[in-house]
Amino acid sequence: MSEEVDIGLAVLDHQLLDREGRRCGNVDDLEIEGGPGETPRVIAILSGPDVWRSRSRWLGALAARIGRGGRVRIPWEEVAEVQSHVRLKRTAAEYGLGRGDDRVRPWIARLPGADR
Predict the structure, then answer these.
(1) pLDDT band at 87, cuts 50/70/90?
(2) Fewer CB within 10 Å, N side or C side of the chain?
(3) Are 15 and 79 in contact (CB under 8 A)?
(4) Cα 27–29–32 angle (5° rounding)?
(5) 41: Cβ–Cβ under 8 A, 6 or more apart, which residues?
(6) What's the rounded Cα separation, in Å, for the pair 19 and 36?
(7) Which residues of 5-44 are buried (b: 16+ CB within 10 A; e: fewer)?
(8) Amino acid 27: pLDDT
(9) Nearest of 30, 26, 35, 37 to residue 5 by alpha carbon
(10) Which of 75, 61, 81, 64 is nearest to 18 (CA)?
């Protein structure tokens, strides 16, 4: 992706979808490079509970502890499209995303009506 995008509105906090359409997290933060006098450029998406810690102080630290996950860094070149979501070029498993969903899926499947 090389066109200009308003990252505050179009990227940050949006849903991540893998190439198969699986929801696999959110854009929790962005890694940006560029110093004074240079044009800033997004170089990576950061996602995961460890990122929450740096964004929300004590509440983020609590959520990170409960979420028991790390930080996933996805290079910006892996973004296929930006719409109301951010679609990635590979599967969630290839990025290490969606592990929390995978852990709770067996319990959710036991709930009445979960298969609808």
Answers:
(1) very high
(2) C
(3) no
(4) 120
(5) 32, 33, 34
(6) 36
(7) eeeeeebbebebbbeeeeebbbbbbbeeeeeeeeeeebeb
(8) 92
(9) 30
(10) 81
Going across the sheet that includes 29-33, the strands are: 29-33, 41-47, 72-75
Secondary structure, 3-state, 30-52 = EEEECCCCCCCEEEEEEECHHHH
Q: What's the pTM value of the predicted model, to 2 decimals? A: 0.73
**DSSP symbols for the chain:** --S---HHHHTTTPEEE-TT--EEEE--EEEEE--TTS--EEEEEEESHHHHHHHHHHHHHHHHHHHT---EEEEGGGEEEESSEEEESS-HHHHT--HHHHHHHHHHHTSTTTT-
Tokens of 102: 């995978």
* Tokens (6 digits) for 71: 């930080």
